[in-house]
Specification:
It contains 3 helices and 5 strands. The chain is α+β, with helices and mostly antiparallel strands and 124 residues long.
Length: 124
């Protein structure tokens, strides 16, 4: 059985609240789970102690049994020091689009033209 440690959504519309659960990967997101391991409340401030609560011993047990955490849960575990930090690559998101590249080139060309006459005036 492929186990996952993931978030199961609760709460009402526009008021999310998540349970951190150990579940079979074939079950639906909010469906059947084996054990509740903690909670996550994204509406609380980032520095709040109540934002993420985890049962560290049970999480370590499930990791030892071969459960794979999802990306968001692995970030919580990294912040808590349970799992070593993974290096993530986001190669394309930080790169500007085609039109933004063209605008930057045009702006650089205009700046170069504006500097050239100013340099000639100071040389005279």
């Amino acid at each position: 059985m492929a186990m996952k440690i993931r978030l199961a959504r609760g709460g009402s519309k526009k008021r999310p609240f998540y349970r951190i659960v150990a579940a079979d990967s074939r079950m639906p997101r909010d469906g059947r789970f084996i054990e509740k391991l903690g909670t996550y409340n994204p509406l609380l401030p980032k520095d709040s102690e109540e934002r993420v609560k985890m049962d560290v011993e049970r999480i370590q047990y499930w990791l030892g049994q071969g459960a794979k955490p999802t990306d968001r849960v692995s970030r919580f575990l990294e912040a808590a020091g349970i799992v070593e930090k993974k290096e993530r690559k986001n190669l394309k998101k930080g790169e500007p689009g085609e039109k933004a590249k063209q605008r930057a080139e045009e702006k650089a060309a205009k700046a170069a033209e504006a500097e050239a006459p100013a340099e000639e005036a100071t040389a005279e």
